[in-house]
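Minutes, methods subgroup
Present: GH (chair), OT, SY

1. OT presented the first of two proteins processed in the latest run. Sequence and C-alpha cells recorded below as shown on screen.
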Amino acid sequence: MSKARRGRRRTGRTLVITPTIPDDASPELKDALAIRNAATATGRCPSCGAVAKIVTPPTPGGAGEAWMAHEDGCPALLGGD
C-alpha cells in the first residue's frame, strides 16, 4: 500500500443534533449550550480545546458514539459536571 493511501480516512454524511438555546435561559446556560453546540459540530471545544474521541465507530446506515472530556473550569460544563 502506498503512503498516500495509508493516510486516507473514510468520510461521509453525518447528522449532528444540537439543542436549541432557549431565549429565557440564563446567560451562563446560553453560553454553555453555545459552546457545547460548537464543540459537537466541529469535534473541538472552542473554550478549552477538548477533542471528541470516537467510542463506537458508526456502522453504514447506523450511528456511532463519541465523547468529549472538557477541562475543569470549562464554561461548557456549567457547574463542573
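2. SY then presented the second protein from the same run.
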Amino acid sequence: MSKHKHEGKHPQGHPGGANSEGNSPDGVTIAPEGSISARLAGVPKMKRKEYEHELRRLHGELVAVQEWVKDTGAKVCIVFEGRDTAGKGGTIKAITERVSPRVFRVVALPAPTDREKSQMYIQRYLAHFPSAGEVIIFDRSWYNRAGVERVMGFCTPEETRRFLDLAPGVEKAMVDSGILLLKYWLEVSPDEQTRRLQSRIDDPRKIWKLSEMDLISYQRWSEYSEARDDMFAATDTAWAPWWVAHSDDKKRARLNIISHLLDRIPFEPLEHRPVELPDREATDDHRLANIPLRYIPTPY
C-alpha cells in the first residue's frame, strides 16, 4: 500500500469543513513578501542525487494512480497557478514524465480567439474537463481572469468580480459530478523570480520562455499579490481549497507537490499480474531486402 495512504484522511476540502458560505475556516495564509526567502534561507537546496532518488519512488506511485484511475473510471482535475517563473511547467513535467499522456493530459490554452472571447468565459475550458479514466492538468486555467487578465487590463473590474462570485459554484458542480479537483498555487519570492527571469535572458535554451508580457508583469508584483489574495479570499472553499507550495527550491517544491497530490487522491495500488516474455520463433529466416537506406550521421 502507498506510504501516502493513512487513516483519518479527510475528503476533498479542508479537514475542518466549511463555514456557512463554503469558504474554508482556516483559509490560505501567505507569508509577507520577502519573509519566505528569510525563513527558507537556512534550508539548503536539495541535491540532484537525493531529488532523483525520491522522484523515482514517487513516479512509481504516480503509475499506480494511473492504473487505479483507468480501472475505476476516476476523474481528476489538477490546476496549477502562480506567478511567472514559479515552476509550474517543471512541476507538471515531473508529474507526467513516467505516465501515459493518454491518461495524464496537460492543457495549456493559448490566448482566446475572437470567437472564444464572445463565448461564456468558462466555455473554452469545459471541453477539457476530465472524462472517466483521465487526469487533466491545467497549466494555468480559468483563474487567468482573476490574475493575469485583471493585472494586465484584459478584462474589466466588473468581469473579475463576477468571475470570483461564480467560480466557487462552478467548482462545486464539478466536484458534485465526481471530479476530484486539486488547485495548487506556486509561490516564488521576488528575489528568486528576478534570478530566474535573468537566467532566461542569459540562456539561449530558455529565451523562448520570456515574452514582452513577462517583462511588463514583472513590474507589477504588488498588483499580482493583491489579485492573488482576492482570488484566495473568494475561491478557497471546502470543496475546492487552494494548496500553496513555496517554490524557491524547485526540486523540493516538485517533490512536495507530488507527495501531497498522492495523499489527496484516494487510490489503492492494483495487484500486479505476473508477466513473462513469450518465446520467440526458433529461427529468423528474414533477409534484409536490397533497398538503399539512408542512415543518419553518427557524430556521437
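Chair's summary of item 2: The longest strand covers residues 179-187.
Next meeting: continue with the remaining queue.
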